[in-house]
């Protein structure tokens, strides 16, 4: 594990050496892609872990790699959120069968005592925490508390790039299998082919536990006029999410936004990206809530500033710009933020953020994004177009 760390202030280095946490990771195969927070490496033959880790929240992520004889293929990424205390030692052993780190040794006091006593001998085999990414990591996660991370991550404790799925029907008996569609004849249509596939579900305990975003954005019994209003201004749906999940501290929704983003950016979890989009759309299109929750929206601008600074510009061409999602969503946000009744501080921050994005990504938030949309024209009854 090679480190390209920048020169560290001697006082910082000494403090991290004395107060930093240590991850002892034994048996990790050579060539494994392993990283912590915003930096990753390929594991070398001498690697035994990471030292001088600043106390707080961290994201350990790794991909198993098959042997060179098997082609050296890289497996899907797995991530673990860890909240480390000063001078804490966590011990994990590589499980070659599961191709995963097993942290159960960290609960064995005798093992931990032995490691602590031999830490000086292990020191040459421990890579220093990449301190140069610390500022970036904190800017991406400063709203995620230990409790929030615990509540959002899967019960398994693992954030996996690929879902662990199992059939909805176990089909343990011959009778059950006989009732399923036959697969020994050619399909007559795409639908028939899809219907023959077994219905799958995510294995219990492996799901990310994000807040549920309401599909209906209006209250029960709403009139057509109320449905239209709540579809244009998503404040009702946003307040429902805050009431159910973050009633005491609404700003924790920003922590969930950061958690989803980190799962996507560093954990390669596409579900994280989709949830990030959902929360963002909910926040940016809630005009009345914007007037009520000034701190939430001032915080949102800061969170987005750091997040959008970490994504390469060509990424937007491939994914984010599909259907103009980000530009249209932020256009609504900037329009609402500059409207009547908005807090002056929020309006000023939004104007600066808009100018920053326009300069950096050359996005025009003042253009009419519907200019090129097809126009639907209602023709009088009996009139046809040849």
From TrEMBL:
Q: AAR2 N-terminal domain: from which residue to which, for each copy?
A: 19-154
Gene3D superfamilies tied to this protein: 2.60.34.20, Aar2, C-terminal domain-like
Region forming the signal peptide = none
Any one Pfam family match given in the protein's UniProt record, by short name:
AAR2
Could you state one GO cellular component term attached to this entry?
spliceosomal complex
Keyword annotations from UniProtKB, A to Z: mRNA processing, mRNA splicing, Spliceosome
Tell me yes or no: is Metal-binding among this UniProt entry's keywords: no
What are the AAR2 C-terminal domain coordinates in residue numbering? 210-366
* A Gene Ontology biological process term: spliceosomal tri-snRNP complex assembly
Q: Which InterPro entries match?
A: AAR2, AAR2_C, AAR2_C_sf, Aar2_N, AAR2_N_sf
Coiled-coil intervals? none
Which family does this protein fall into? Belongs to the AAR2 family.
Give the function comment from the record: Component of the U5 snRNP complex that is required for spliceosome assembly and for pre-mRNA splicing.
Q: How does it assemble?
A: Interacts with PRPF8 (via RNase H homology domain). Component of a U5 snRNP complex that contains PRPF8.
Protein name (record): Protein AAR2 homolog
Q: What is the lineage of its organism?
A: Eukaryota, Metazoa, Chordata, Craniata, Vertebrata
């Amino acid at each position: 594990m090679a480190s390209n760390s920048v020169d560290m202030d001697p006082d910082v280095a000494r403090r991290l050496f004395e107060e930093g946490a240590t991850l002892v990771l034994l048996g990790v195969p050579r060539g494994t892609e392993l990283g912590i927070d915003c930096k990753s490496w390929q594991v070398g033959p001498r690697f035994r872990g990471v030292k001088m880790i600043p106390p707080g929240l961290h994201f350990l992520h790794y991909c198993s790699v098959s042997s060179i004889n098997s082609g050296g293929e890289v497996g899907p990424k797995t991530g673990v959120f860890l909240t480390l205390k000063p001078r804490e030692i966590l011990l994990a052993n590589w499980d070659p069968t599961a191709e995963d780190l097993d942290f159960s040794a960290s609960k064995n006091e005798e093992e931990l005592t032995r490691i602590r006593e031999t830490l000086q001998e292990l020191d040459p085999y421990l890579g220093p925490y990449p301190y140069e990414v610390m500022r970036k990591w904190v800017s991406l996660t400063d709203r995620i508390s230990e409790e929030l991370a615990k509540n959002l991550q899967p019960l398994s404790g693992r954030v996996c790039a690929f879902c662990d799925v199992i059939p909805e029907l176990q089909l343990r008996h011959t009778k059950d299998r006989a009732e399923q569609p036959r697969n020994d004849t050619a399909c007559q249509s795409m639908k028939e082919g899809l219907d023959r596939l077994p219905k799958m579900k995510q294995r219990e305990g492996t799901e990310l536990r994000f807040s549920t975003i309401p599909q209906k954005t209006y209250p029960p019994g709403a009139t057509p006029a109320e449905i239209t209003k709540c579809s244009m201004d998503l404040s009702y749906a946003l307040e429902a999410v805050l009431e159910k999940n973050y009633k005491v501290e609404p700003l924790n929704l920003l922590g969930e936004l950061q958690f989803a983003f980190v799962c996507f950016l560093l954990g390669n979890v596409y579900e994280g990206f989709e949830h990030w989009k959902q929360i963002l759309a909910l926040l940016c299109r809630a005009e009345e809530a914007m007037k009520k929750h000034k701190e939430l929206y001032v915080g949102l601008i800061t969170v987005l500033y750091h997040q959008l600074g970490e994504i390469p510009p060509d990424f937007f061409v491939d994914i984010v710009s599909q259907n103009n999602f980000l530009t249209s969503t932020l256009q609504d946000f900037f329009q609402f933020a500059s409207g009547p009744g908005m807090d002056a501080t929020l309006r000023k921050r939004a104007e600066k953020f808009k100018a920053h994005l326009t300069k950096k990504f050359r996005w025009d938030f003042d253009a009419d994004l519907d200019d090129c949309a097809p126009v639907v024209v209602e023709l009088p009854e009996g009139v046809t177009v040849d």
